[in-house]
Amino acid sequence: MSPLDALPEEIDELLDGFMSHSIFGNMTAGLTTYTFWLFVALTLLLVVLFVFKKKQSESLVPQGTFVNGVEFVVQYIRDDVVKGICGETWRKHFPFLCTMFFFILANSIVGMIPGCHPGTGTIGVTAAVAICSFVYFVVIGCKRMGVIGYIKSLSPKGVPCPINILVAFIECFSNILRPITLAIRLFCNMFAGHIVMGVFAILASLFVEPLLNGFSVVALGNASASIFWVALLIGIYVVEILVGVIQAYVFTLLSAVYIQQVEQEH
User: Fold this and answer.
1) Sequence ranges of the domains in the chain
2) pTM of this prediction?
3) Are 263 and 140 in contact (CB under 8 A)?
4) CA–CA distance, 76 with 35 (Å, rounded to integer)
């Protein structure tokens, strides 16, 4: 029997594992697997930030790889993303945007641990984060221009009425699409990466399993083939870590762009 014969059944189990299951209570009022790992990611993030602030306060000059690494990330988000896009108003938006970045990054890192179900692996959490971003830049626009002024800003001045109505409709539709694209982009990239890692992990285990049941030339050949799958799995892990960082960066970058757009003069 070829190890690949058991692949469809294993993939079905893998997909079922990515579904949200209730730990206690029910699916609407209880604690689900994704909610549990979401709180785990938040707890780890708070611990990391607490340790960072404690170590940072011990010396005026940053000491150690950990402190320097966190400071580098924070400064990069501050200077290249928030300052570079939001301009003079960067100070009031930096806490929100930096929080978004580290929240997504923490969930992506937790998702690298086998058996974990990070919040970014479900569309509900990514949609909630995208809605927070949407509400934030809409509120900023309403504060700067007023509610009526913000609505008027969706249609350009000096354009004939029929065309102006069409442009206003397109702008409204574009604004509605922003949180949808933010949520779907983040969810699809994270979920697809986890599926790929799971498939390669299954292939590695299937090819080495016959050797555990008894030594033979065929079993030894299958076990040797598993080395190839393990090597690919390690490579995918590295790529997935980069994807997690990039997705957190892209989400923060787009949120900063949307904020800048409502703050610029119309």
Assistant:
1) 32-189+249-263
2) 0.81
3) yes
4) 30
